[in-house]
Amino acid sequence: MNMKKTGEFLKMLRKEKGLTQEQLAEILLVSGRTVSRWETGTNMPDLAVLIQIAEFYEVEVKEILDGERKGGTMDKEWKETLAKVADYNKLEKEKSARADNLAFGFTFIICAALIVIQLMATGELMLVLGETVVLLVGGVAYIAVLTYNGVWETSSKFKNTPISDALVSIVCAAVFTIILAASYVKSGATASQAVRIATLFFSGIAAVGFALLRALVHFSRRRREKIQ
After folding, report:
1. Which H helix or E strand runs over 109?
2. Contact, 216 vs 143, CB < 8 A?
C-alpha cells in the first residue's frame, strides 16, 4: 500500500465534498492535525475510522487503501465483517490496557502498603525515602506510557471526570496525610504541630493530584487524536 497515494486520494475526496480539514475533523470527531497527517501519508486512520470515512465519501475501503477509484461495490456482508473486525480490535486493545493497568495497580498498592507498614513501624521517614522515590518514578513512568499511547482514559472502565478526579485526589491525599501525621507524632512532634503540617500537606497534595489527573486526561486525548 502506498500511504502517500492514499493520502492524496483522501485529500481529493475531501475537496470534492468542499470541506476544509477542520470541517472534516469535526465530522469525524478528530483533530485537524490528524486529518492533515492522513492526507500527507504520515499516518493512516484506524480501521473503525476508515470505515466511517468510506461511508462518508461513498467509496469502498479498498479504493481508499489503493488510493484510486476502481468501480464496483462492496457487498453488505463484507462491510459488516469489516465493522465487526474494527469493533473487535478496539475491544481487544481496551481489554489489554485494562489488564495491564490492573496488574500494575495491584503491584503499586502492595509496594505502597509495605512502605507504609515500614514507616509506621519505625517512624523514620528517611528509611523509606529511597523506596518511595523508586515507587513514584515507576508509577510516573507507567502513567507516561499510558498517556503517550492515548489510553489513560480507555484503560479503565471508569470515566475520568472533574468530580471523579477530585474525589480520587481527596481520598488519596487524606490517606497519606493521616500516615504522615501519625509518623510525626511517633517521631516526637506535638499534636498541634502534626495537625498543622498535615493540613498544609493535605491541601497541597490534593490540589496537585487533581491538577495532574486533569492534565493526564487532556494530554491523553490529544495524543489519541494524533495517533488515530
Report:
1. helix 76-122
2. yes
pLDDT at 118 over 60: yes
Say if residues 201 and 180 touch (Cβ distance below 8 Å). Answer: yes
CA distance linking residue 169 with residue 162, whole number of Å: 10
Q: Which pTM was predicted?
A: 0.46
CB distance 68 to 34 below 8 Å: no
Residues of the chain with CATH 1.10.260.40: 3-74
Give the integer Cα–Cα distance in Å for 201 and 193.
12
**Region 3-74: CATH code:** 1.10.260.40
> Quick check: 147 and 216 in contact, CB under 8 A?
yes
Residue 90 contacts by C-beta under 8 Å, 6 or more apart in sequence? 46, 48
Q: CA 73 to CA 196: how far, in whole Å?
A: 73
Which of 60, 67, 72 has the alpha carbon at shortest distance from 39? 67
Q: Can you give the pLDDT at residue 180?
A: 74
pLDDT over 80 at 216, yes or no:
no
Is the per-residue pLDDT at 35 higher than 80?
Answer: yes
